[in-house]
Amino acid sequence: MKIGYNAITKPSFLLVHPELPALISCKPLKICNPVLGIPRSHEKFIGFVTKSQYSTFERTSKMDTVRVGRKGRGSSSSLYSRPSLLEMRNERIENRDRVYEFLRSIGIVPDELDGLELPVTVEVMRERVDFLHNLGLTIEDINNYPLVLGCSVKKNMIPVLDYLGKLGVRKSTFTDFLRRYPQVLHASVVVDLAPVVKYLQGMDIKPNDIPRVLERYPEVLGFKLEGTMSTSVAYLVGIGVARREIGGVLTRYPKILGMRVGRVIKPFVEYLETLGIPRLAVARLIERRPQILGFGLEERVKPNVESLLEFHVEEASLASAVAQYPEILGLDLKSKLHSQQSLLKSVIDLDPEEFGGVVEKMPQVVSLSKTPLIKHVDFLKNCGFSLQQLRKMIVGCPQLLALNLDIMRLGFDFFQTEMGRPLDDLVDFAAFFTYGLESTIKPRHKMVTKRGLKCSLAWMLNCSDEKFKQRMDYDTIDLEEMDPEPSFDMNTLMEPRSDESGSDYDSDDDYV
């Protein structure tokens, strides 16, 4: 007899009761009475329910374990123990406060350091300060640029200083170097410094001169290669500065690399042109004295030109005075002019108008020291010249105040003993003292004496060697051939160079 499904009383209750440990395993399902005749499909269903119940029980047990762990989070041994963001922030603030307190204790004002990454301990910060002290920097230097405290000794300072030392920058100059450009300690040797050095070498600055350039102008290490540096050099070549001279110009005055063409260089060049100095002559002056570009046009140059006019230098002579002594534009000129005018008034009774003429012929007179000047005047007095004769000689040839006294003595002794001429000849041609005794005076005097010619000192000396040989063939002396007294010739600045290359920059219209 078979029993139907209806005869089974709540089999699900017995199979899934949670308190029956036997149901945790699947084994009880295997001892079911086959007499019941439960279909296989129903057996599979029962097994599925039982496994699900087991999984639920396992998850419940694990969750209870997690809850226990969470209750113990405050314990230091817990895997889940981590400082909160608030705790980390407070710790950073406390560390920075301690570092700030240390800096204030040694006189450093840390107000500008907010937001800058600093060492977390006082010990590391003390190491940085001590390293900067060893480089010669004072507390005042650090306060002038406190951001230097953000540079790591090992990662920033030592690599940069090692690189500069390998280039040839002298350690004795490191202190001044860092005072002028402390930002170099933030730089990357590979990314920032090495490319600038390579660019400078490309400007024909000799490798041995690179360290001197950096010492004179450390700020160049912060410039962009294709910015101000390239435009300033291009402009100079454009006005006539010889390409082969660029390296020497930049070596002597590297600040040119940081000058704006439109604001500094071009206005300076154009102003000198208004004084009567041709552009090519200005280029030659820059080749010889590149530092003149650093004279402030409005602050120094223009006021000095006004001072020259005030002290009776003729406007037409300004170009000559500046071309002879371009440094005159950068001096504290008015005080020097006043001092020298007073000095010459006291020793040779020179009038103000005559003083202007002296400056025109030898503008360097404004820089002569008092003692040497008086020695030269005393020498001429001892030669027998009167005060009036002295004044005439110095107005005609101010170089007498600056020549080598030993050479002047030799020249005067030869004039007296061998030439036998009256002193008036020297008064009329005081430039006699400017000619070489062995190279010019003696050989020409010998030839004139041999020919039996009677001539002035000017006719004998004030001409080229070729011209003098021609004169020696004359039967008579033609006074109309007398050359003017020696004076500065602007054209000497613009003589063509046989080795000068042409410029690709023929116009400066683009520089504004």
Automatic annotation (TrEMBL):
Coiled coil: none annotated. It is found in: Plastid, Chloroplast. InterPro entries: MTERF (IPR003690), MTERF_sf (IPR038538). Gene3D superfamilies: Transcription termination factor 3, mitochondrial. Its main location: plastid. Residues 481-512 are annotated as: Disordered. The keyword Metal-binding does not apply. One of its GO terms (molecular function) is nucleic acid binding. Residues 501-512 have a biased composition (Acidic residues). GO terms for biological process: developmental process; DNA-templated transcription termination; RNA splicing. Keywords: Chloroplast, Plastid, Transcription, Transcription regulation, Transcription termination, Transit peptide. Belongs to the mTERF family. This is Transcription termination factor MTERF4, chloroplastic. It comes from Morus notabilis. The lineage of its organism: Eukaryota, Viridiplantae, Streptophyta, Embryophyta, Tracheophyta.
